[in-house]
Fold:
Amino acid sequence: MNARPEQITIPKELLPADGRFCCGPSKVRHEQIDAIVVARDTLLGTSHRKPPVKNLVGAVRSKLDNLFQLPDGWEIVLGNGGSTVFWDIATFGLVRGRSQHAVFGEFSSKFAHACAAAPHLGDPSVMESDVGTHPTLVAEEGIDVYALTHNETSTGVAMDLRRPTGTSAGSSLVVVDATSAAGGLTWSPSEVDVYYFAPQKCFASDGGLWLAACSPAAVDRINEIGSSPRWRPASLDLKVALDNSTKNQTYNTPAVATLVMLNEQLDWMLDSGGLAWSSGRSAESAATLYGWADSREWATPFVSNPAERSNVVGTIDLNDAIDANAVCAALRANGVLDTDAYRKLGRNQLRVGMFPAVEPSDVEALTRSVDHVVSALAD
Ligand SMILES: *Cc1c(COP(=O)(O)O)cnc(C)c1O
Structure:
Protein backbone atom coordinates (compact mmCIF):
# COMPACT_ATOMS: atom_id res chain seq x y z
CA MET A 1 0.00 0.00 0.00
CA ASN A 2 1.28 3.44 -0.88
CA ALA A 3 1.75 5.93 1.95
CA ARG A 4 -0.90 8.65 2.33
CA PRO A 5 0.80 11.99 1.56
CA GLU A 6 -0.40 13.72 4.73
CA GLN A 7 1.03 10.91 6.86
CA ILE A 8 4.58 11.26 5.56
CA THR A 9 6.93 12.82 8.06
CA ILE A 10 9.96 14.54 6.58
CA PRO A 11 12.92 14.31 9.01
CA LYS A 12 13.59 17.69 10.57
CA GLU A 13 17.20 17.80 9.35
CA LEU A 14 16.02 17.65 5.74
CA LEU A 15 13.44 20.44 6.03
CA PRO A 16 14.03 24.07 4.98
CA ALA A 17 14.39 26.55 7.84
CA ASP A 18 11.55 28.53 6.23
CA GLY A 19 8.98 26.63 4.20
CA ARG A 20 7.51 29.48 2.15
CA PHE A 21 8.03 29.00 -1.59
CA CYS A 22 4.96 30.79 -2.94
CA CYS A 23 5.27 32.74 -6.20
CA GLY A 24 3.30 35.66 -4.81
CA PRO A 25 2.59 36.77 -2.21
CA SER A 26 6.04 35.49 -1.40
CA LYS A 27 8.11 34.91 1.74
CA VAL A 28 8.26 38.05 3.90
CA ARG A 29 11.47 38.48 5.92
CA HIS A 30 11.10 38.91 9.68
CA GLU A 31 13.02 42.19 9.47
CA GLN A 32 10.21 43.58 7.33
CA ILE A 33 7.67 42.85 10.04
CA ASP A 34 10.05 44.37 12.61
CA ALA A 35 10.12 47.52 10.46
CA ILE A 36 6.33 47.72 10.70
CA VAL A 37 6.59 47.46 14.49
CA VAL A 38 9.16 50.29 14.52
CA ALA A 39 6.77 52.38 12.37
CA ARG A 40 3.79 51.86 14.67
CA ASP A 41 3.97 55.21 16.47
CA THR A 42 5.45 57.41 13.75
CA LEU A 43 4.14 56.35 10.34
CA LEU A 44 1.20 53.99 10.65
CA GLY A 45 -2.01 55.87 11.24
CA THR A 46 -0.62 59.24 10.13
CA SER A 47 -1.52 61.43 7.15
CA HIS A 48 -0.14 60.41 3.76
CA ARG A 49 -0.06 64.14 2.88
CA LYS A 50 2.41 64.96 5.70
CA PRO A 51 6.22 64.65 5.67
CA PRO A 52 6.69 61.27 7.42
CA VAL A 53 4.73 59.26 4.82
CA LYS A 54 5.79 61.50 1.93
CA ASN A 55 9.43 60.97 2.94
CA LEU A 56 8.81 57.21 2.98
CA VAL A 57 7.41 57.38 -0.57
CA GLY A 58 10.40 59.51 -1.55
CA ALA A 59 12.82 57.00 0.00
CA VAL A 60 11.21 54.11 -1.90
CA ARG A 61 11.41 56.08 -5.16
CA SER A 62 15.06 57.01 -4.75
CA LYS A 63 16.08 53.52 -3.56
CA LEU A 64 14.43 51.92 -6.62
CA ASP A 65 16.25 54.43 -8.80
CA ASN A 66 19.48 53.37 -7.10
CA LEU A 67 18.74 49.61 -7.27
CA PHE A 68 18.06 49.77 -11.02
CA GLN A 69 20.87 52.32 -11.64
CA LEU A 70 18.49 54.45 -13.69
CA PRO A 71 19.94 57.17 -15.93
CA ASP A 72 18.99 60.83 -15.41
CA GLY A 73 15.44 61.74 -16.33
CA TRP A 74 13.77 58.47 -15.30
CA GLU A 75 10.87 58.71 -12.85
CA ILE A 76 9.45 56.16 -10.42
CA VAL A 77 5.66 56.43 -10.62
CA LEU A 78 3.35 54.60 -8.23
CA GLY A 79 -0.31 54.14 -7.38
CA ASN A 80 -2.90 51.75 -6.04
CA GLY A 81 -4.20 48.56 -7.61
CA GLY A 82 -1.27 46.26 -8.37
CA SER A 83 0.01 45.19 -11.77
CA THR A 84 -3.43 44.11 -12.98
CA VAL A 85 -4.67 47.67 -12.62
CA PHE A 86 -1.53 48.94 -14.35
CA TRP A 87 -2.62 47.05 -17.51
CA ASP A 88 -5.79 49.15 -17.59
CA ILE A 89 -3.80 52.29 -16.80
CA ALA A 90 -1.50 51.54 -19.74
CA THR A 91 -4.46 51.21 -22.13
CA PHE A 92 -5.51 54.72 -21.15
CA GLY A 93 -2.16 56.43 -20.67
CA LEU A 94 0.68 54.66 -22.56
CA VAL A 95 -0.67 53.10 -25.75
CA ARG A 96 -1.26 55.81 -28.35
CA GLY A 97 -2.89 53.67 -31.03
CA ARG A 98 -1.72 50.07 -31.22
CA SER A 99 0.43 47.71 -29.17
CA GLN A 100 2.30 44.50 -29.89
CA HIS A 101 2.54 41.79 -27.22
CA ALA A 102 4.74 38.80 -26.50
CA VAL A 103 2.19 36.29 -25.18
CA PHE A 104 3.53 33.13 -23.54
CA GLY A 105 1.40 32.42 -20.51
CA GLU A 106 -1.40 33.67 -18.32
CA PHE A 107 0.02 37.03 -17.23
CA SER A 108 1.38 38.14 -20.59
CA SER A 109 -1.97 37.32 -22.22
CA LYS A 110 -3.88 39.56 -19.83
CA PHE A 111 -2.35 42.86 -20.95
CA ALA A 112 -3.02 41.85 -24.58
CA HIS A 113 -6.67 41.19 -23.68
CA ALA A 114 -6.94 44.57 -21.94
CA CYS A 115 -5.66 46.34 -25.07
CA ALA A 116 -7.96 44.29 -27.32
CA ALA A 117 -10.95 45.29 -25.20
CA ALA A 118 -10.15 49.05 -25.13
CA PRO A 119 -12.53 50.73 -27.61
CA HIS A 120 -10.15 53.64 -28.25
CA LEU A 121 -7.23 51.38 -29.36
CA GLY A 122 -6.62 49.42 -32.54
CA ASP A 123 -6.46 45.62 -32.38
CA PRO A 124 -3.20 44.60 -30.75
CA SER A 125 -0.65 42.55 -32.63
CA VAL A 126 -0.01 39.33 -30.70
CA MET A 127 3.14 37.21 -31.00
CA GLU A 128 2.45 33.94 -29.27
CA SER A 129 4.58 30.91 -28.48
CA ASP A 130 4.00 27.59 -26.74
CA VAL A 131 4.01 27.60 -22.95
CA GLY A 132 7.51 26.85 -21.71
CA THR A 133 9.08 29.11 -24.38
CA HIS A 134 8.84 32.79 -25.27
CA PRO A 135 8.24 34.56 -28.60
CA THR A 136 10.37 37.35 -30.08
CA LEU A 137 8.86 40.69 -31.01
CA VAL A 138 9.52 42.28 -34.40
CA ALA A 139 9.24 45.88 -35.58
CA GLU A 140 5.84 46.56 -37.12
CA GLU A 141 4.45 49.67 -38.77
CA GLY A 142 2.00 51.59 -36.57
CA ILE A 143 2.98 49.95 -33.27
CA ASP A 144 3.76 52.46 -30.51
CA VAL A 145 4.05 50.10 -27.50
CA TYR A 146 5.92 46.76 -27.45
CA ALA A 147 4.81 44.75 -24.41
CA LEU A 148 7.21 42.25 -22.86
CA THR A 149 7.08 40.17 -19.68
CA HIS A 150 10.42 39.80 -17.92
CA ASN A 151 9.34 36.68 -16.08
CA GLU A 152 6.18 34.73 -16.98
CA THR A 153 5.21 33.58 -13.49
CA SER A 154 2.70 31.00 -14.74
CA THR A 155 5.33 28.95 -16.61
CA GLY A 156 8.75 29.89 -15.22
CA VAL A 157 10.03 31.38 -18.49
CA ALA A 158 12.25 34.47 -18.29
CA MET A 159 13.29 36.60 -21.25
CA ASP A 160 16.22 38.94 -21.86
CA LEU A 161 14.88 42.45 -22.34
CA ARG A 162 15.79 43.97 -25.69
CA ARG A 163 14.19 46.52 -27.98
CA PRO A 164 12.71 44.62 -30.94
CA THR A 165 15.06 44.66 -33.92
CA GLY A 166 14.21 47.52 -36.24
CA THR A 167 12.77 49.77 -33.52
CA SER A 168 14.60 52.67 -31.97
CA ALA A 169 14.47 54.35 -28.60
CA GLY A 170 12.12 57.33 -28.59
CA SER A 171 9.67 56.43 -31.36
CA SER A 172 8.00 53.42 -29.75
CA LEU A 173 7.99 52.37 -26.09
CA VAL A 174 9.14 49.03 -24.65
CA VAL A 175 6.77 48.37 -21.73
CA VAL A 176 7.72 45.48 -19.45
CA ASP A 177 5.65 43.57 -16.91
CA ALA A 178 8.36 42.91 -14.33
CA THR A 179 6.04 41.94 -11.49
CA SER A 180 7.85 38.76 -10.52
CA ALA A 181 11.26 39.80 -11.92
CA ALA A 182 11.95 43.24 -10.47
CA GLY A 183 14.69 42.90 -7.84
CA GLY A 184 15.56 39.31 -8.82
CA LEU A 185 16.65 39.56 -12.48
CA THR A 186 19.00 42.05 -14.15
CA TRP A 187 18.04 44.34 -17.06
CA SER A 188 19.40 47.30 -18.92
CA PRO A 189 17.47 50.61 -18.84
CA SER A 190 18.68 51.40 -22.39
CA GLU A 191 16.45 48.55 -23.68
CA VAL A 192 13.31 49.51 -21.75
CA ASP A 193 10.95 52.48 -21.32
CA VAL A 194 8.53 51.31 -18.65
CA TYR A 195 9.44 48.62 -16.09
CA TYR A 196 6.38 48.02 -13.90
CA PHE A 197 5.72 45.69 -11.01
CA ALA A 198 3.90 45.13 -7.73
CA PRO A 199 5.79 44.62 -4.46
CA GLN A 200 4.58 41.15 -3.38
CA LYS A 201 7.17 39.06 -5.28
CA CYS A 202 10.90 39.89 -5.11
CA PHE A 203 10.17 42.80 -2.79
CA ALA A 204 8.44 40.45 -0.35
CA SER A 205 5.79 42.97 0.66
CA ASP A 206 2.01 42.92 0.51
CA GLY A 207 0.19 43.39 -2.78
CA GLY A 208 -2.04 46.28 -3.78
CA LEU A 209 0.42 48.84 -5.15
CA TRP A 210 1.89 49.23 -8.63
CA LEU A 211 5.24 50.90 -9.28
CA ALA A 212 6.67 51.82 -12.68
CA ALA A 213 10.15 53.01 -13.62
CA CYS A 214 9.59 55.34 -16.59
CA SER A 215 12.20 56.53 -19.10
CA PRO A 216 12.22 60.14 -20.38
CA ALA A 217 10.47 58.90 -23.56
CA ALA A 218 7.79 57.26 -21.42
CA VAL A 219 7.36 60.46 -19.40
CA ASP A 220 6.93 62.35 -22.69
CA ARG A 221 4.28 59.84 -23.82
CA ILE A 222 2.43 60.13 -20.49
CA ASN A 223 2.39 63.92 -20.82
CA GLU A 224 1.37 63.77 -24.50
CA ILE A 225 -1.64 61.50 -23.89
CA GLY A 226 -2.34 63.32 -20.60
CA SER A 227 -2.90 66.57 -22.46
CA SER A 228 -4.96 64.98 -25.26
CA PRO A 229 -8.78 64.88 -25.32
CA ARG A 230 -8.86 61.09 -24.68
CA TRP A 231 -11.17 60.33 -21.75
CA ARG A 232 -9.35 58.76 -18.81
CA PRO A 233 -10.87 57.78 -15.44
CA ALA A 234 -8.96 59.82 -12.86
CA SER A 235 -7.95 56.78 -10.79
CA LEU A 236 -6.46 55.21 -13.96
CA ASP A 237 -4.86 58.38 -15.28
CA LEU A 238 -1.11 57.90 -15.54
CA LYS A 239 -0.53 61.66 -15.82
CA VAL A 240 -2.33 62.16 -12.49
CA ALA A 241 -0.17 59.38 -10.99
CA LEU A 242 3.02 60.92 -12.42
CA ASP A 243 2.21 64.38 -11.08
CA ASN A 244 1.50 62.97 -7.62
CA SER A 245 4.54 60.69 -7.61
CA THR A 246 7.00 63.48 -8.36
CA LYS A 247 5.62 65.11 -5.17
CA ASN A 248 6.15 61.80 -3.29
CA GLN A 249 2.42 61.22 -3.03
CA THR A 250 -0.20 58.92 -4.47
CA TYR A 251 -3.49 60.11 -5.97
CA ASN A 252 -5.44 58.34 -3.24
CA THR A 253 -4.47 56.74 0.07
CA PRO A 254 -1.77 54.06 -0.24
CA ALA A 255 -1.21 51.06 2.05
CA VAL A 256 1.44 52.56 4.33
CA ALA A 257 2.48 49.23 5.89
CA THR A 258 3.24 47.85 2.41
CA LEU A 259 5.50 50.82 1.73
CA VAL A 260 7.30 50.21 5.04
CA MET A 261 7.93 46.58 4.08
CA LEU A 262 9.09 47.56 0.59
CA ASN A 263 11.45 50.19 2.01
CA GLU A 264 13.01 47.65 4.38
CA GLN A 265 13.52 45.14 1.54
CA LEU A 266 15.18 47.83 -0.57
CA ASP A 267 17.54 48.67 2.32
CA TRP A 268 18.42 44.99 2.64
CA MET A 269 19.16 44.66 -1.08
CA LEU A 270 21.12 47.91 -1.35
CA ASP A 271 23.14 47.36 1.84
CA SER A 272 24.08 43.86 0.67
CA GLY A 273 25.31 44.82 -2.79
CA GLY A 274 22.35 45.91 -4.91
CA LEU A 275 20.72 44.14 -7.83
CA ALA A 276 23.87 42.15 -8.66
CA TRP A 277 23.68 40.64 -5.19
CA SER A 278 19.91 40.07 -4.98
CA SER A 279 19.75 38.56 -8.49
CA GLY A 280 22.79 36.44 -7.60
CA ARG A 281 20.89 34.86 -4.71
CA SER A 282 18.07 33.83 -7.05
CA ALA A 283 20.59 32.56 -9.61
CA GLU A 284 22.21 30.40 -6.93
CA SER A 285 18.83 28.95 -5.90
CA ALA A 286 17.94 28.28 -9.55
CA ALA A 287 21.22 26.48 -10.25
CA THR A 288 20.48 24.21 -7.29
CA LEU A 289 16.89 23.49 -8.33
CA TYR A 290 17.52 22.83 -12.04
CA GLY A 291 20.72 20.89 -11.31
CA TRP A 292 18.78 18.66 -8.94
CA ALA A 293 15.95 18.09 -11.45
CA ASP A 294 18.49 17.21 -14.17
CA SER A 295 20.04 14.61 -11.89
CA ARG A 296 16.79 12.81 -11.07
CA GLU A 297 15.28 10.21 -13.43
CA TRP A 298 11.77 11.31 -12.53
CA ALA A 299 12.13 15.10 -12.68
CA THR A 300 12.76 17.47 -15.63
CA PRO A 301 12.92 21.25 -15.85
CA PHE A 302 9.72 22.22 -17.72
CA VAL A 303 11.50 24.96 -19.71
CA SER A 304 13.67 22.97 -22.09
CA ASN A 305 15.94 25.83 -23.20
CA PRO A 306 18.27 26.58 -20.26
CA ALA A 307 18.62 30.19 -21.46
CA GLU A 308 14.86 30.73 -20.96
CA ARG A 309 14.69 29.16 -17.48
CA SER A 310 13.74 31.63 -14.79
CA ASN A 311 15.93 32.23 -11.76
CA VAL A 312 12.97 33.46 -9.70
CA VAL A 313 10.21 30.94 -10.54
CA GLY A 314 11.30 27.35 -11.14
CA THR A 315 8.97 24.83 -12.80
CA ILE A 316 9.82 21.14 -12.58
CA ASP A 317 7.79 18.42 -14.33
CA LEU A 318 7.49 15.07 -12.57
CA ASN A 319 7.00 11.86 -14.51
CA ASP A 320 3.56 10.29 -14.59
CA ALA A 321 4.33 7.70 -11.94
CA ILE A 322 4.58 10.46 -9.33
CA ASP A 323 1.57 12.62 -8.53
CA ALA A 324 2.76 16.21 -8.02
CA ASN A 325 -0.39 16.97 -6.04
CA ALA A 326 0.51 14.21 -3.59
CA VAL A 327 4.05 15.56 -3.31
CA CYS A 328 2.71 19.05 -2.59
CA ALA A 329 0.24 17.67 -0.03
CA ALA A 330 3.03 15.84 1.81
CA LEU A 331 5.22 18.94 1.74
CA ARG A 332 2.36 21.07 3.04
CA ALA A 333 1.71 18.65 5.90
CA ASN A 334 5.34 19.28 6.89
CA GLY A 335 5.13 23.07 6.65
CA VAL A 336 6.63 23.40 3.15
CA LEU A 337 4.07 25.52 1.35
CA ASP A 338 2.78 26.50 -2.10
CA THR A 339 4.95 24.37 -4.38
CA ASP A 340 1.92 23.66 -6.60
CA ALA A 341 1.92 24.21 -10.38
CA TYR A 342 0.07 27.24 -11.71
CA ARG A 343 -3.54 26.08 -11.59
CA LYS A 344 -4.47 26.89 -15.21
CA LEU A 345 -1.31 25.29 -16.64
CA GLY A 346 -2.63 21.89 -15.56
CA ARG A 347 0.71 20.05 -15.55
CA ASN A 348 2.11 17.38 -13.22
CA GLN A 349 4.57 19.91 -11.95
CA LEU A 350 6.16 21.64 -8.96
CA ARG A 351 6.56 25.44 -9.10
CA VAL A 352 9.02 27.04 -6.70
CA GLY A 353 9.37 30.73 -5.83
CA MET A 354 13.11 31.52 -5.60
CA PHE A 355 12.88 35.24 -4.96
CA PRO A 356 15.84 36.93 -3.24
CA ALA A 357 14.26 36.59 0.23
CA VAL A 358 14.32 32.80 -0.08
CA GLU A 359 17.55 31.35 1.30
CA PRO A 360 19.43 29.37 -1.39
CA SER A 361 20.13 26.76 1.31
CA ASP A 362 16.37 26.37 1.78
CA VAL A 363 15.95 25.57 -1.92
CA GLU A 364 18.51 22.85 -1.46
CA ALA A 365 16.63 21.61 1.60
CA LEU A 366 13.44 21.61 -0.47
CA THR A 367 15.05 19.28 -3.02
CA ARG A 368 16.10 16.91 -0.20
CA SER A 369 12.55 17.04 1.18
CA VAL A 370 11.07 16.20 -2.24
CA ASP A 371 13.47 13.26 -2.58
CA HIS A 372 12.27 11.97 0.79
CA VAL A 373 8.59 12.39 -0.12
CA VAL A 374 8.98 10.70 -3.51
CA SER A 375 10.63 7.67 -1.98
CA ALA A 376 8.09 7.53 0.86
CA LEU A 377 5.18 7.70 -1.63
CA ALA A 378 6.63 4.69 -3.46
CA ASP A 379 6.95 2.59 -0.28
C1 LIG B 1 1.74 38.36 -10.00
C2 LIG B 1 1.81 38.89 -11.38
C3 LIG B 1 0.88 39.81 -11.87
C4 LIG B 1 -0.33 40.24 -11.08
O1 LIG B 1 0.01 41.11 -10.06
P1 LIG B 1 -1.14 41.77 -9.16
O2 LIG B 1 -0.38 42.75 -8.32
O3 LIG B 1 -1.77 40.67 -8.40
O4 LIG B 1 -2.09 42.43 -10.08
C5 LIG B 1 1.06 40.31 -13.14
N1 LIG B 1 2.09 39.94 -13.90
C6 LIG B 1 3.00 39.04 -13.47
C7 LIG B 1 4.13 38.65 -14.37
C8 LIG B 1 2.90 38.50 -12.20
O5 LIG B 1 3.80 37.61 -11.77
Remarks:
- The two ends are 7 Å apart (CA to CA).
